[in-house]
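Hey, can you fold this one?
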Amino acid sequence: MSDEEWERFLRESVGGSAGAPVEPSARARGVERRLRERSGQPPEGWRTYSPARPRRRTGWYVAGLAAAVALLVGGLFPHQVIGWFGGNDDGQDKAPLAAESQKPRTAPGAEPGLRPTPAEPFRGSPASRWADGAAGITVPPAKATGWMDAAQVETALRQSRRFLVAAGLDPRVLRGERPTKAIALLNPHQKDVQEYLRTALSSKTPTSETDPLLLFSRFRPEQARLAGDVVKTRGRLTYREGKRGALEVTADVTFVYPVTPARDGERDAEVVRTIVRRETVMSWDDPAKVITEPGTMSLVSYTLDMTNGGCSDPTGYFTPPFGTADEQPTDKAHQVDPYDRSKPIDTSNGTPATGTDCATATRS
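Sure. Predicted structure:
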């Protein structure tokens, strides 16, 4: 032993080392003994030593294993896990989508493949997160454009949305009645459109060029009716300066109509979602350059893309495929996602998607 270690040993022997046990007084030992005798515990010497129990880590291992299993199950079956905890597994418990302010870059994500019901007509559909009715049609801020100042542009945008509502959301029009409110917003001096309206709304055998569905959403009341009173929409208006200084407004809106057979009961009725995307270009003309009437606009173009509305010859009404939705032919060469708003409406064949050449929808 070195001199330094010997000196440290002598000091600790006299003064005691840090953490060394201190002998209690005789009185303290007596009090402790009486307390133990009352509690029935055997006396324990004050110099005895009880080693600490080793900590068991089994609980942590079990908890870690359980967490790993939970993560695995959640990754493989996310919708079932949500249902276990009381969540709505059809996506309707998700927060509503923000208004569409610009063109989407991708299609909506996949939803659980659940069938719609009369109580939940948008079950299993991306539209469950869309806004109701006119609220889903975004109107941009107004600024002076063409012959109009900012206030006039704001009025024209509001009237443009009003036309879309009157043509695609009015309950009377959906029941097949004449779209009076929508027609009142169209320039009565636009001869080609007025001729189309006369033919489309009076002919019992419309053609693909005179089909009223090009502008208006209609169902035969004896065949189909809305499941509930909500139509989901998503889309927006944009505008620019058009010909002769006109304000040209473009509307790109998708409408989702959940319908049931007219004579089925409420609880067990089949629900089919007819999905309609419309692109309508409207021109609010300068009355100094174009013959028009105050508060009306001219139609530049109107295009329709439709799913679950019928693939036979035009009848002037949507004809949902009740009872045969699972039997529709699958054309893998021409499939479309009716909820994908990132792509333009396909007009490559020059005719709207209302004829016999219907694409196969990847989902509804």
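Residues 58-76 form the longest helix (19 residues). Let me know if you want another pass with a different chain boundary.
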